[in-house]
Amino acid sequence: MPTHTAEAARRRTFAIISHPDAGKTTLTEKFLLFGGAIRQAGSVKSRKSAKHATSDWMTLEKERGISVTSSVMQFPYDGRIVNLLDTPGHADFSEDTYRVLTAVDSALMVIDCAKGVEERTIKLMEVCRLRDTPIMTFINKLDREGKSPVELLDEVERVLDIPCAPITWPIGMGSRLKGVIHLMTGEVHLFETGKNFTRQDSTIFPSIEDPALVKRVGAQLLDEVREELALVQGASHPFDRELYLAGLQTPVFFGSAVNNFGVQLLLDFFVTHAPAPKPRDASLRKVSPEEPAFSGFVFKIQANMDPLHRDRVAFLRVCSGSYQHGIKALHVRTGKEMRLGDALTFMASERELAEHAYPGDVIGIHNHGTIAIADTFTVGDPLQFTGIPSFAPELFRRIRLRDPLRLKHLQKGLTQLSEEGATQFFRPLLSNDLILGAIGTLQFEVVAYRLKDEYGVEASFEPVQIHTARWIQAESDSDLEEFREKAATHLALDASGALVYLAPSRVNLQMAQERAPKICFTATREHS
Ligand code: G4P
Question: Where in this chain does the record put each Tr-type G domain (predicted)?
Fold first, then answer.
């Protein structure tokens, strides 16, 4: 088997989706401990609060104490190579998160057992569904009182509309937490405070019927669990890998990330069953990871990871072949060949120079603004990967420039920031306004800060009467031309030159749609 095919088969590339505070950071840290990537608990946590030390570029971010950046962590586990793509937690940066989800092969959903399914998880799940991404579920914080396990499964099934296949089942909860049963092996793993719960460190009983277990757990609790299990096994679904891989069933684990309990059972199952890189859609055809020619697409651009060098790092997901240090690849959008010289890999978030990378891996390419979100690089056919979305912004501002002579700088800055996906900007057909669109208000602050810091442009934002944006398409050019004339006052071009309808109100949008039945109004757009 060629090296890149064997290497691809052992890759597991995923992201964690959760509502803030469910325990994503804590769980990430435990994974890294198991992967030998960090030695001490607390390292990820402290990075979270002092993140500016490694990757953050903005004082704004420090002031806010939130993370607007996402990173990639690679670690080996059990013969596999796991790539964990972090997603920014703050809701204002959801667009970034959505794009990270286009670069993974599966997702892990973390749910707080006391809170159940929360709003952001619902949104992220919708995004996963667009690509039928397989999802595993970890129900966290079992050391606290929460909803009953049956209730939690029911909530996931009802709210997220995905059948659950419990793989572990808790024995007690909160102060009564005694352990979990692995429903596929029958083993009981005890929860004992002060332990680290690695395979070596856990007390494991072969079955719930083991007589010695009564002493440890208590007859009453065991009876309760037996009853619960009889109920659950009748009502829930056995694990079916095909359904899981099709995004039609989620295996569910219970545990406590902060206590490292139930985490290794999850990780063992994850590396065994989660999918390796699959073929990806591109213009013309699908691209298989087994193809020898290197190819990949950019799903994220992060500016100023190193403030001294003002660099931008484009995060590229490798889709086929292999990357070797110094490789030259075609940058399909510009038609130019680029030497991807000093790409970075992200071994447990240390930035290192990559010698090799294989399908499923992410490399970071330095550039000065030539690379945009959704760009494809390849040494094979000049194809373009598809399926990387832009979402219609929900908030709009008009930009006012303090010094009109800086207009060129402003335009350059806005073009680059929208290529990075940091914001979207629109130029109305009939005015000289520059309109900025965002998903969350914090994005405007980021843009204002970066315009000043990087482009020397002082700009302020003022409210503008725009409710929403829709990209415009029509089957025939003449229909489009007619609409363009009729609706010109509400039309604008986005940074890539695509036509957009800026609706002042919901009613206006509805009327425009009714009056122009041959025109297609879309709320998402694929980068092309
Ligand atoms: P996030 O990345 O999803 O936002 O969540 P994070 O891991 O930061 O966890 C949010 C809070 O929940 C943290 O507490 C963390 O310690 C706690 N937590 C995570 N897993 C568990 C668990 O299994 N049980 C319990 N009881 N708590 C858990 P914090 O007070 O915000 O931070 P810290 O001071 O504890 O670090």
Answer: 9-278
20 C-alpha to center of ligand 1: Å? Answer: 10
Give me 306's structure tokens: 């190193």
88 appears as a binding residue in the annotation: yes
- Taking only Cα atoms into account, the Rg of the chain, rounded to an integer number of angstroms, comes to 25
Output phi, psi for 325, to 5 deg. Answer: -50, 125
- pLDDT per position as a tens digit, 287-324: 999 999 999 999 988 776 555 556 678 899 999 999 99
Q: What is the pLDDT of residue 405?
A: 86
**Nearest CA owner, ligand 1 atom 9:** 23
In this structure, the dihedral spanned by the alpha carbons of residues 384, 387, 388 and 392, taken in order and rounded to 10 degrees, is 130
User: The whole model's pTM is what?
Assistant: 0.84
Task: Report the complex ipTM.
Answer: 0.98
Rounded CA separation 98/129 (Å)? 11
Distance 146 CA to ligand 1 centre (A): 15
Between the CA of residue 151 and those of 239, 288, 364, 382, what are the distances in Å? 19, 41, 43, 51
Which ranges of 72-189 does DSSP label H, i.e. alpha helix?
Answer: 94-102, 119-130, 149-159
195 CA distance to ligand 1 centroid (A)? 18
Which protein residue has the closest C-alpha to ligand 1 atom 25? 141
